Amino acid sequence: MKQVEDAEILSKFQDEKTRNNAFNLLLQKYQQKIYWHIRRLVIDHDDADDLVQETFVKVWKNLHSFRSDSQLYTWIYRIATNESITFLNKKKNRNNVSLDEVNSELAETLASSSHFDGDKIQRKLQEAILTLPEKQRIIFNMKYFDDMKYEEISEVLGTTVGALKASFHIAVKKIEAILINQD
């Protein structure tokens, strides 16, 4: 199936008669990418499903005011990232635990998840990623898994390209060290 351009989706969304169709096209184009972006941050399948729904509810409510000064998908990624961070912070605060403990809990969830279908190497990589500080983890996931350009990540996170490159480089070195020491 041919991908619809963002401009066409936005145009259709402005017309009340084609708004639902436009949103369905947007979901077809971005829902799976957003699911995996969120899933890599929160690990749990059910939590990721909930956050995808919350993300697209916000997109629906705010798409009419989208200003096109950024790309549509980076705007959606920003919403998804913020929803995920908010979720993780609430989890940390609700359980009155440190971020390290939340990351440890996420690693346990990963290890016991029936929805994780990766092999041993993928699991080790995910566990290594979970040891990173939150921002490095988000940057690593967006660059490594989502294959986003630094400029796009900069739009999503509001961080300079130079800072992103440095964070990604540090994250890669930490992951390499962990994977080398696991053998």
UniProtKB/TrEMBL annotation:
Molecular function, one GO term: DNA binding
Coiled coil, from the record: none
Keywords, ordered alphabetically: DNA-binding, Sigma factor, Transcription, Transcription regulation
CDD domains listed in its UniProt record: Sigma70_r4 (cd06171)
Record PROSITE patterns: SIGMA70_ECF (PS01063)
RNA polymerase sigma factor 70 region 4 type domain: residues covered: 123-174
Cross-referenced Gene3D superfamilies: 1.10.1740.10, Winged helix-like DNA-binding domain superfamily/Winged helix DNA-binding domain
InterPro entries linked: RNA_pol_sigma-70-like, RNA_pol_sigma-70_dom, RNA_pol_sigma70_ECF_CS, RNA_pol_sigma70_r2, RNA_pol_sigma70_r4_t2, RNA_pol_sigma_r2, RNA_pol_sigma_r3/r4-like, WH-like_DNA-bd_sf
Span of domain RNA polymerase sigma-70 region: 26-92
One Pfam family here: Sigma70_r2
GO biological process annotation, one example: DNA-templated transcription initiation
Similarity annotation: Belongs to the sigma-70 factor family. ECF subfamily.
PANTHER family: RNA POLYMERASE ECF-TYPE SIGMA FACTO, RNA POLYMERASE SIGMA FACTOR
Protein name: RNA polymerase sigma factor
Lineage, broadest ranks: Bacteria, Pseudomonadati, Bacteroidota, Sphingobacteriia, Sphingobacteriales
